[in-house]
């Protein structure tokens, strides 16, 4: 980096150690320009939270938390919106948040991505202003929304179709 006149921002630098299943956990740290960088259990890169087990639990938790906040704010202004404008708002903000960088989740079991599916279900109910326990499959069908697992598969397969 010094050769190319680049400087590392040590305030944003994180060390992520991904141990093998049988390896003992180590308290690793490195020293860069006199600053100690300790290992952490997770690190954020371009909005994706990677953890040392690569199970993406923290990423799913952060995405769900962010989407719940967005849905809460949309619900507050929803009485002033039409159904169509609510749908556009939800698709633009919440669905794009669910779809952002979701291809690494393709190898996860359905129970791991369930929190994201619950967010999508809540979003569909919000569009139609229905109560919490309304059946969601007809809503998703009428909105032409694929379930989260299918959206993840689609985003993983789509680049092959475009070639």
Note down, in words, how this protein is organized.
This is Reverse transcriptase. It comes from Synaphobranchus kaupii (Kaup's arrowtooth eel). The structure is a single chain. The protein is built from 5 helices and 5 strands. By secondary structure, it is of the alpha+beta class. The chain has 2 domains: 40 residues, no CATH class; 109 residues, no CATH class. The protein has a 3-stranded mixed beta sheet, with no helix packed on it. It is elongated.
Topology:
Layout: E1 15-16, E2 29-32, E3 35-40, E4 42-45, E5 48-51, H1 57-77, H2 83-99, H3 114-128, H4 137-143, H5 148-162
Parallel strand pairs: 1-3
Antiparallel strand pairs: 2-3, 4-5
Helix pairs in contact: 1-2, 1-3, 2-3
Q: Which short descriptors sum up this protein?
A:
3-stranded mixed β-sheet; 163 residues; Reverse transcriptase; 5 helices; two-stranded antiparallel sheet; 12% strand; 2 domains; alpha+beta
The radius of gyration computed from the alpha-carbon positions, rounded to a whole number of angstroms, is 20 Å
* Main sheet specs: 3 strands, mixed
Q: Kindly report the spatial arrangement of strands forming the biggest sheet.
A: 1-3-2
User: What is the arithmetic mean of pLDDT?
Assistant: 89
By DSSP, the count of extended strands is 5
Describe this structure in a few short sentences.
With 163 residues, the chain is an alpha+beta fold.
